[in-house]
Amino acid sequence: MKKEAMLYEKLGENKIHCYLCSHHCRIGPSGFGICGVRQNIDGVLYTHVYGEAIAHHIDPIEKKPLYHFFPGSEAYSIATVGCNFKCGFCQNWQISQVSYRDGLLEDGYALTPEKIVQEARKHGCKSISYTYTEPTIFFEYAFDTAYLAKQEGLYNNFVTNGYMTKETLEAIHPYLDACNVDLKSFREEFYRDICKAHLQPVLDSIRLMKKLNIWVEITTLVVPGQNDSDTELANIAQFIASVGKEIPWHITRFHPNYQFTDQAPTPLETLKETLKIGKQYGLRYIYLGNVSLESDIHCYNCRKPVIKRTYSHVEKVNIKQGKCSFCGTKIDGVW
Prior knowledge:
This protein is of the alpha/beta class and 335 residues long. It has helices at residues 93-96, 113-122, 139-151, 166-172, 188-195, 200-211, 230-243, 268-280, and strands at 3-4, 8-12, 15-18, 26-27, 38-41, 44-47, 52-53, 55-60, 74-79, 109-110, 127-130, 155-160, 178-182, 215-222, 249-253, 286-289, 297-298, 305-310, 313-317, 319-320, 323-324. The protein contains 8 helices and 21 strands. The protein has an 8-stranded mixed sheet. Strands 1-6-5 form a 3-stranded antiparallel sheet, with no helix packed on it. It is globular.
């Protein structure tokens, strides 16, 4: 469904400045933004994906991954086509790299914000997750859904590349409770060459999320030969610690996909070494993703398990009123 977009300004001569994300696209008549789903039509910016889902599922919140946000709960998860990044290792490239710029799409289906909230409540979901592709590019859809969800006592979370602008975050933050941000690298050239974007806006978004009291968890997909040096991983750990040592860091194993099919999976030893690096910088909570290790939450004070999991299934909870049942230390998160 076509709908007038938010967060843009008219520049004259039917040109438009979109400031939804940090690409800050200047779009000429009939043109599209980098995301491929927002178009200048007669001097008005429209989104083509409002109410047009490409995927919806009920997922464990741990799958996002959000480990400290209502552990053991379920999230009604939705996505549209499109993305503002071009990552060659994207695991959802079949839907994220589809574009209205390239022609009419037939795979989407109507799913209104009202229906999403209704279904989430019907199935006992604690939250709605805007995920699989980049939620920033279907912002109007996510915004209206998140607003309605809040009225019905539901929570909202983004699984995002963090490339939204300050204005976008400030607009959604009254309704947005948590984010898992992909911090893909700590080198500008990685973002420029592989993601076709820039590093600094992602760092700025993470800092702003923390300031706005949005619960943040960070994921880094460790790709052999691309972002797996000890120096780079230490830089990421140091940055996270500077924002907040309570921010969970998900260190995730890469598996060959999309344009990176010739790349080997991440050695398990690399992930274990990265875990050590994170601990050296004082991070309280570090998890290994895409492997069956390090999914329990341990109290950072007494080191006893306060949440025990098998994969994404919570088996035992030793948290009472947000505190460790063993020593009384406050465990960071949303419980």
